[in-house]
Amino acid sequence: MNEGLHLFSGQFVWIKKVGADDAGEPLRQFLREKMNLSRAAVTAIKRDGHLEVNGLPVTVRRVIEENDQVTVTFPKEQESAGLLAEPVPYSIVYEDDAFMVINKPAGLQTVPSRKDWKRSLAGGVLFYLKQHGVEATAHMVTRLDRDTSGLILVAKHGFFHEMFTKMRKAHRLSREYIAIVHGHLDTHEGVIDAPIGRKEESIIERCVRSDGRPAITHYKVIKETEAFSVAAVRLETGRTHQIRVHFSHIGHPLVGDDLYGGSREAISRQALHASRLFLYHPVTEEAMTFTAPLPEDMKRLVEH
Fold first, then answer.
1. Long-range contacts (CB closer than 8 Å, 24 or more residues apart) made by 212-218
2. Domain check: are 180 and 267 in the same one?
3. Is 292 part of a structural domain of the chain?
4. Which of 141, 170, 199 is the last residue of a domain?
5. Is 145 tagged catalytic?
6. Whether residues 13 and 52 fall in one domain
7. d(CA 226, CA 255)
8. Where in the sequence is the domain holding 156, given as residue range(s)?
9. Active-site residue, from 22, 68, 145, 147
């Protein structure tokens, strides 16, 4: 069987050949260092999955040699309790056995909320996976507000979700956004460094406050119209509503974002789109970049 990730009867199997540099080390070390599996993941695989070398069951103490074929069978996952699997509109930008990249339309929540526990992208992904015989739950690695459009990363197993989370902390996974804001910014390129916390007496709204969590937003203006500025935005941190709060804080709220001072005359939702996603593949370690064009409602603002 070839190296790489395979899906058999709804179960994930990862096969990797041992190189000369890894010969003579215990399998445990190979799993941690070359397959990036955490100690907890290895424990779960030992308990509910399978470990083989050259087709034979082994323990993590097994000493491996060059050209050995290591086969890891991941434990099956339980479907998320309370997540309703139902079809919802979205487009798949990329998919393989490890993950999906999805272009989410505005108006669709990423995960269920207390107000609306039914219709969500997570439920749509779960429906899709079940239709294709994948015994997994919906691991939403990245999320977007209901009315923000654009790219979302979905892992097909908790182990890959964990890998992507570590990748993001190491700044090896990043997203870029396009934001359309009111007015013209003083500088065409800059950094907004202002801590964000929950606004008093609100469970939804955030604000800049001295006791908030650190939040850093990088921006570059790429176009100006008579009334608006179009900015490419990159986040150094990932606070709730960060882009919306930061641009409102400097006096340039997002167009359509009436929660933070924007006007809805030109567009019925915040003009924010996750346009670019960069990551390293958790299995092949290939550098990958995905893009999603502006949706029509934002494109109309830019073109006028």
1. 212/239, 213/237, 213/239, 215/239, 215/242, 215/245, 215/246, 216/191, 216/192, 217/191, 217/192, 217/193, 217/242, 217/243, 217/246, 218/190, 218/191
2. yes
3. no
4. 170
5. yes
6. yes
7. 13
8. 77-170
9. 145
Q: Is residue 47 in some structural domain? A: yes
Q: What angle do CA 291, 297, 302 make, to 5 degrees?
A: 75
Q: What is the pLDDT of residues 86-100, one digit of tens each?
A: 999 999 999 999 999
Q: Are residues 91 and 162 in the same domain?
A: yes
pTM summary value: 0.91
Query: Under 8 Å CB-to-CB from 55, ≥6 apart: which residues?
Result: 69, 71
Asked if residue 81 and residue 32 are part of one domain, the reply reads no
Report the C-alpha gap between 65 and 57 in whole angstroms. 15
In a domain, 91, yes or no: yes
Per the CB < 8 A criterion, the answer to whether 143 and 122 are in contact is no
Calpha distance 239→206 (Å, rounded): 9
pLDDT, tens only, 165-180: 999 999 899 999 999 9
Q: Tally the domains of the chain.
A: 3
Q: What is the pLDDT, as a whole number, of residue 116? A: 67
56 plus 29 within the same structural domain: yes
